[in-house]
Design a protein that fits this description.
The longest helix has 16 residues, at 198-213. The radius of gyration is 17 Å and the shape is globular. The protein is an alpha+beta fold and 214 residues long. The chain has four helices and eight strands.
């Protein structure tokens, strides 16, 4: 996986052409790695309204701090009151019902590119690739700026819907302010269906490249 600090010209690496291949098996499937993300952002990714993950890192990321260290992982939806206010007004998410006793894994993500973007103007150009409110981006961009550089870890991703989805009992170890969680042993998935077409994904890739290189 190509990771870099983006403050100069960026070249995206070719992404895996998996399309709607129902037989696609993520290389890290057996590792059971999941990425904790707001439930409404997971829904945006799973509905094709978002192709980016934007993260600064939680307070429990360890000495190394946050990084997109895995190429393939599950999306682990998290909940808190007021999520809707963190989305742009133009985005109308589907109604999601929280069940505090279980967690439903619906999506698998493959990271095509990731990097640390330290130019706020370049991040602003990426608005069409995510649904987060500007205030959220500003807060994350400047978070912990005394100890860390201003900027955001950005990942351009391809999302696949699992059919059927996987439901797990909620466990205490899944909590805490960290981005990655280790899941229990999971059975092999059924079909994995790409959320967007090859053509749409390629257009978004080109838009990302142009936005960060301008």
């Amino acid at each position: 996986m190509n990771q870099q600090v983006v403050n100069c010209e960026l070249l995206l690496q070719p992404y895996p052409r998996k399309g709607g291949d129902a037989n696609y098996q993520p290389p890290l499937w057996n590792n059971g790695i999941a990425f904790k993300e707001w439930a409404l952002v997971c829904e945006a990714l799973g509905s094709g309204n978002q192709s980016l993950l934007l993260r600064k890192g939680g307070i429990a990321e360890g000495k190394k701090g946050f990084g997109f260290e895995h190429e393939d992982f599950f999306l682990f939806p998290t909940w808190f009151h007021g999520q809707l206010e963190k989305m742009r007004p133009s985005y109308t998410p589907a109604v999601i019902v929280e069940n505090p006793e279980t967690v439903t894994l619906e999506y698998v993500v493959h990271v095509d590119w990731s990097g640390f973007v330290s130019d706020r103007k370049k991040i602003a150009r990426l608005e069409k690739l995510h649904v987060l409110h500007d205030s959220v981006i500003d807060e994350r961009f400047s978070y912990n700026a005394v100890k860390a550089s201003e900027g955001l870890h950005v990942a351009f991703v391809r999302v696949y819907r699992m059919s059927p989805s996987i439901q797990l009992p909620m466990e205490k170890r899944f909590g805490g302010c960290r981005s990655w969680v280790q899941l229990p042993v999971l059975t092999s998935p059924g079909a994995l269906i790409s959320i967007v077409s090859d053509e749409e994904h390629a257009e978004r890739e080109k838009f990302l490249e142009d936005s960060l290189n301008t």
